[in-house]
Automatic annotation (TrEMBL):
Signal in keyword set: yes
Domain of life: Bacteria
Organism: Kitasatospora xanthocidica
Protein name: Multicopper oxidase family protein
An example molecular function term from Gene Ontology annotations: oxidoreductase activity
SUPFAM superfamilies given in the database record: Cupredoxins (SSF49503)
Annotated PANTHER family: FI03373P-RELATED, MULTI-COPPER OXIDASE
Keyword annotations of the record: Copper, Metal-binding, Oxidoreductase, Signal
Length: 509
């Protein structure tokens, strides 16, 4: 029973590809040994959210931002009923999970839209422990506040820790000045032609962050009241990103007035309480639509233990970089005092904040103070190695799928191989193959590329991931075993790039 709206995928499927709800998909699910049911009810609804002294009208799961975390145990069958109280069709996508294809939540590919007023039951086995999240796969709805963490616990968890803190990062535009992500998308899709940006390289745009009409006060963390002067509405609200020292090129194409940790502004941050000496597992999730965050915890080193849910050989870092959709788990041993967990919006001169407090000592961290660790030793995914038991065994690829990342901000013509997303087009793969995905970035911007339904390995015994940043002018080759039949999306996790065309489908034959 897949709920009232199941029965059609909505898109004309080319012949020769496995269906999302075919017998191969059911057989793959049976091999996961679906266990006890974990039932969850979710309502996607229009609501008023308090970001900490600033209320906005937006869309969310329930009345909270992020939505209520879903927590389950490895082997459980997750049974989530989604009620759609939005004025638009929606779906739920389970980011990072290797799940049955017909539950992957891609409208027109793996399921029909869940229409306004309708509901749909998602039901699938949880085959891997780790830190995941969920969001709609419908337009740019995710960027309105429809997201929440999904934690799959491992009953044989080898890590020892006292406390756990789930930290979700987000850039925020919705309801601030009457605008919405859809309006931003429409403006981007109309193109940036009216703006003086010299052919879209964007490198001359750094100075724009100081232009009139771009009031950055709320973004610089210098202590001004959030929302005191919302950005001017209209085209001037968009800007090419400033250059990021880490990412090069353009760091972003939408000017976000706010940056949030767990739905809170830096002026009213969430405080996480612990005791000095506690070992804290921090699960970091970047749910932003268009922002990479550099994250550090003042006064502490981070021991990286997982990337996108999968264990790595532990590595110490002072700062981490998370592209949109990426997750990192870290361990810290809490010191005595109050410490800022700061997320710097790369290239945007803005920060988001949460606070770790132990005991009574220490003044509250000032949102304007950036911990020195932010500029300390930065660890990126390419420097990590997978833990031995999740390493992808060495094997020559049976097939290489070459995807050139193309397009630019000027025309918002983001695409793979120069072709904008067409739900009827597929890149074929076959069950049992070792597949290499080769992403060649010919654009001036970095892109976090994401594969559904699988985790890939970065080169050289690199970490297992489902989302990885491809820097401008570079090629990233990742490998995965084609062991989960169906139709699976590959796309940039900048929601505006995906929605304007940088998205395609891998189809099992
Ligand atoms: Cu978060 Cu298609 O993904
Ligand atoms: Cu992109």
């Amino acid at each position: 029973n897949h709920g009232p709206t199941s029965g059609t995928t909505g898109a004309a499927a080319p012949a020769g590809y496995l269906a999302p709800n075919g017998p191969e998909v059911a057989a793959a699910e049976a091999r996961r040994n679906p266990g006890p049911e974990r039932k969850v009810a979710l309502t996607a609804t229009e609501t008023t959210l308090d970001l900490g002294g600033r209320t906005v009208r937006s869309w969310a799961y329930g009345d909270r931002l992020p939505g209520q975390e879903v927590r389950a145990t490895l082997g459980d069958t997750l049974a989530v009923t989604l009620a759609n109280h939005l004025p638009q069709p929606t779906t739920l996508h389970w980011h990072g999970l290797a799940l049955r294809n017909d539950m992957d939540g891609v409208p027109g590919v793996t399921q029909a839209d869940v229409r306004p007023g309708a509901s749909f039951e998602y039901r699938f086995a949880l085959a891997h422990p780790g830190t995941y999240w969920f969001h709609p796969h419908s337009g740019v709805q995710q960027d309105r506040g429809l997201y929440a963490p999904l934690i799959v616990e491992d009953p044989r968890e080898p890590l020892a820790y006292d406390k756990e803190w789930v930290v979700v990062l987000d850039d925020w535009v919705d309801g601030v000045d009457g605008s919405t992500p859809d309006a931003v998308l429409a403006e981007l899709a109309r193109g940036m032609g009216g703006m003086d940006h010299s052919g879209g390289s964007g490198h001359d745009m750094a100075g724009m962050t100081g232009m009139p009409g771009h009031d950055m006060a709320g973004m610089t963390g210098t202590g001004s009241a959030p929302g005191g002067t919302p950005n001017a509405a209209g085209p001037s609200r968009m800007l090419m990103g400033a250059q990021s020292p880490l990412l090069g090129g353009d760091a972003g194409d939408v000017a976000y007035p706010f940056h949030l940790v767990n739905g809170r502004l830096a002026t009213a941050p969430e405080t996480f309480a612990a005791k000095p000496g506690d070992r804290i597992r921090i699960r970091l999730v970047n749910a932003g639509g268009d922002t990479a965050y550099r994250v550090a915890l003042g006064g502490h080193e981070l021991t990286v233990t997982h990337t996108d849910g999968f264990p790595v050989e532990p590595a110490t870092a002072q700062a981490l970089l998370l592209g949109m959709g990426e997750r990192y788990d870290v361990l810290v041993t809490a010191k005595d005092g109050a410490f800022p967990l700061t997320a710097l919006a790369e290239g945007k001169n803005a920060t988001a904040l949460a606070v770790l407090r132990t005991g009574g000592g220490g003044a509250a961290p000032d949102a304007a103070v950036r911990p020195a660790e932010l500029d300390g030793r930065l660890v990126t995914a390419g420097q990590l190695r997978a833990a031995p038991d999740v390493r992808l065994p060495a094997k020559a690829p049976d097939r290489t799928v070459r995807l050139e990342l193309t397009g630019g901000m000027a025309k918002a013509d983001w695409a793979f191989n120069g072709r904008r997303y067409d739900p009827a087009q597929r890149y074929p793969v076959a069950a049992g193959e070792r597949v290499r995905l080769e992403f060649r970035n010919s654009t001036a911007m970095w892109h976090p590329v994401h594969l559904h339904g699988h985790s890939f390995a970065l080169p050289g015994d690199g970490p297992r991931k489902d989302t990885a940043v491809v820097l401008p002018g570079t090629t990233l080759a990742v490998d995965f075993d084609a062991d989960n039949p169906g139709l699976w999306m590959v796309h940039c996790h900048n929601v505006y790039h995906a929605e304007t065309g940088m998205m395609t489908v891998l189809g099992y034959r």
